[in-house]
Amino acid sequence: MTVTSLRDGYVDMPVRRLRQPGDRAFGDDLPSQVSLVDGALRLSVNTFAIDDGDDITLIDTGASNAWHPTMGHLPEALREAKIAIERIRTVAFTHTHLDHIHGLILADGRDGFPQLTRLLVPRAELGMFREETRLERFHNHAQPLDAGQRVSAHIETIATPGHEVGHTCFRVMSGGETLLIWGDIVHVPSLQFDQPEITWEFDADQDQARTSRLQILAIAAGNACYVAGAHLDSPGVGRVFRTETAFRFESL
């Protein structure tokens, strides 16, 4: 098994997107370890290709030209990684926010993955996916993705609702090692490992998002798993360790 991190780009977000318990925004009390770019939080946008030697499963597709112009670079990342798009037969989404799904269609309107045979969408978000008019050609092609489902012999799903109602992680297992591709469990790695109670304005259910984050961090740290995150600093892959009070992340 080979897993490749593919950077779709980045997005700069205001600090007010971070939420302290009680739904309080940060002001001058933002911890010093959080670095800003021109006063904004810079979030990498990553997708991940899983190659089992036969076919490639792509987890999330980036934003294409549906949001900020700093995203939509997945096609270039695939070329750089020498991944032939015709080998990508399965696309699976962690959730249906636009920076994860719109890469199905290239900026010029062509299909991003012309040999696609399976499009897996968390069951609870199928309706949300089918509201995306730009992706109308894929509405009937989408198949529901459930918790505990086997995507392949080496990939299974874990329900991690909160950031969105159907938010899903993918557990990839091979050769005695495990990788958790966890979508939007963490948005700001310089803060949310040390303070996992911090949530994100776009978390649909902030309490549930906090609970899911703590559960997955505990699994990752307790089982020596590798993790891969959509918004961890590129390449977005590393390991989680417990500290006396919370967790820490070590990038590969």
Automatic annotation (TrEMBL):
Q: Which UniProt keywords apply?
A: Hydrolase, Metal-binding, Zinc
One Pfam family matching this protein: Lactamase_B
InterPro entries assigned: MBL_superfamily_lactonases (IPR051013), Metallo-B-lactamas (IPR001279), RibonucZ/Hydroxyglut_hydro (IPR036866)
Which PANTHER family does this chain map to? QUORUM-QUENCHING LACTONASE YTNP-RELATED, QUORUM-QUENCHING LACTONASE YTNP-RELATED-RELATED
| Official protein name in the record | MBL fold metallo-hydrolase
**Similarity field:** Belongs to the metallo-beta-lactamase superfamily.
Lineage, uppermost ranks:
Bacteria, Pseudomonadati, Pseudomonadota, Alphaproteobacteria, Hyphomicrobiales
Zinc: is it a keyword of this entry?
yes
Q: Which domain of life is it from?
A: Bacteria
- Chain ranges of the Metallo-beta-lactamase domain: 44-231
Q: Name one GO molecular function term.
A: metal ion binding
